[in-house]
Description:
Blueprint: E1 30-32, E2 35-40, H1 55-73, E3 78-87, E4 98-108, E5 111-119, E6 125-135, H2 138-145
Antiparallel strand pairs: 1-2, 2-4, 3-6, 4-5, 5-6
Amino acid sequence: MIHNPYRHVEGYNCFGCSPNNENGLQMQFYEDGEEIICDWEPRGFLQGYFNVLHGGIQATLMDEIAAWLVQVKMKTAGVTSRIDVRLKRPVPVNEGPLHLVARLVEKRRNLADIWVELHNPDGTLGAEGTITYYTFPEGVAREKLSYPGYELF
Length: 153
């Protein structure tokens, strides 16, 4: 499991990953080679259609895991520049945990393209896409985005 270095920072309330945000997604991550992985249990109040996870929440899950790839694998922080998500099939909220996988595809100067897949509990592909992050040099990430440094993950 990747340690969340922000969890005890006063005021930290990230919708995607804060374990203390009751209304948030409370995502947790781990590494598998060059990939960042998240197994996440959906909750019914996040549905769009009956028992189907809202598409905006799917995009948020994918954006959040991409952010953690930037922090852990690229050892810096950045901001979302572009989200290109393809919703492939309904993602259920009541059949068990979803499996997300993120990996770096390409880095062009300060832009990082991260491929993310969201798999349904039965293993089928629910959504996929490329999340592009504008990354900062580590010093700027520490100063402007409160990046704590790779060693704290």
